[in-house]
Design brief:
Blueprint (H helix, E strand, L loop, with lengths): L17 E5 L6 H18 L3 E4 L18 H15 L3 E4 L3 H8 L4 E4 L7 H8 L4 E5 L9 H9 L6 E5 L2 E2 L5 E2 L4 H5 L5 E4 L5 E2 L8 E2 L4 H11 L3 E7 L13 E2 L3 H17 L1
Parallel strand pairs: 1-2, 1-12, 2-3, 3-4, 4-5, 5-6, 6-9, 9-12, 12-13
Antiparallel strand pairs: 7-8, 10-11
Helix pairs in contact: 1-2, 1-8, 3-4, 4-5, 7-8
Length: 272
């Protein structure tokens, strides 16, 4: 994958990690623009290549009454507005073959969710749009098995592929990051560490996923030290009212300090 091929990507010569960051779901235009404005300000200051992340719909929910979105086209148009307003690339996840072509009209990166990364038809449909593809490692998959997922993209004529580790199931209600998988998966594609989803506590009796946001900096620091190419995080100006995954989000007010620390670690790693 060539990061410089992403439309509107900035700071690619900074030798920094790149960042995929934004709310879990697009809840409305005002919230999306507010979050994007803050992240763009911080990443420009720190010279971090940045991609705005937001799900146009949430298909993998614990309960039937969980928030799924504000409408596909409405949310996708908001993603396009973020891109046009702040001149940054955008990423969203897709869940069905029909989503691929639709979302590709609005965003720069199509993300395959962890639970769906073995769905060959979905991965191939995404790859054939010509967009950059971000493959989430399944919670149930080994790092070595992601070689085959990445190959589905390249065999479809698309070299723009990256892999995101979002933790591995540890029992029924916890996730763990096995950092040994980072160098393994870097043999197949650039690797991103999804810090916030790796701290989820799924399968709670309430049907609402829990999380450990107090461990965000610990996992992120370890990822940079291990040599990840990118960091993925979900953030919100008030995680307590976020309509999806608020329990494991980073508060937007804490973003600059965290990224400043990660940039410092990256400089140290680069000097070794």
């Amino acid at each position: 994958m060539d990061l410089t091929k992403l439309p509107q990507i900035k700071h690619t010569n900074s030798n920094n990690f790149f960042l995929l960051c934004g709310p879990c779901a697009i809840e409305g235009e005002e919230m999306a623009l507010r979050i994007a404005e803050k992240i763009v300000s911080v990443t420009d200051k720190l010279k971090i290549p940045y991609v705005f992340k937001g799900s146009f719909k949430k298909a993998n929910r614990s309960r039937v009454d969980s928030f799924t979105g504000i409408g596909d086209e409405k949310a996708l148009k908001i993603l396009r507005k973020v891109s046009e307003t702040f001149e940054v690339p955008t990423v969203t996840d897709i869940h069905e073959i029909s989503d691929a072509g639709m979302a590709a009209e609005y965003v720069d990166i199509l993300q395959i969710p962890a639970f769906l990364v073995r769905q060959t038809d979905l991965v191939v449909a995404a790859a054939k749009t010509g967009k950059t593809i971000n493959l989430k490692k399944g919670q149930f998959m080994s790092p070595e098995s992601m070689k085959h997922a990445a190959k589905k993209v390249t065999d479809s004529g698309n070299e723009q592929v990256m892999i995101t580790d979002r933790g591995t199931m540890f029992g029924y209600q916890d996730m763990i990051v096995d950092f040994r998988g980072i160098p393994t998966m870097k043999q197949y594609a650039p690797v991103i560490l999804d810090v916030t989803h790796s701290l989820q506590q799924p399968n709670q009796s309430t049907g609402v996923t829990g999380g450990r946001p107090d461990m965000i900096e610990t996992i992120a620091r370890a990822g940079i030290a291990t040599g990840v190419d990118g960091i993925f995080m979900e953030t919100h100006f008030d995680p307590s009212i976020a309509k999806s995954d608020g329990a494991n989000m980073l508060h937007l007010d804490h973003l600059e300090k965290l990224l400043t620390n990660l940039v410092a670690i990256r400089k140290t790693v680069n000097s070794l």
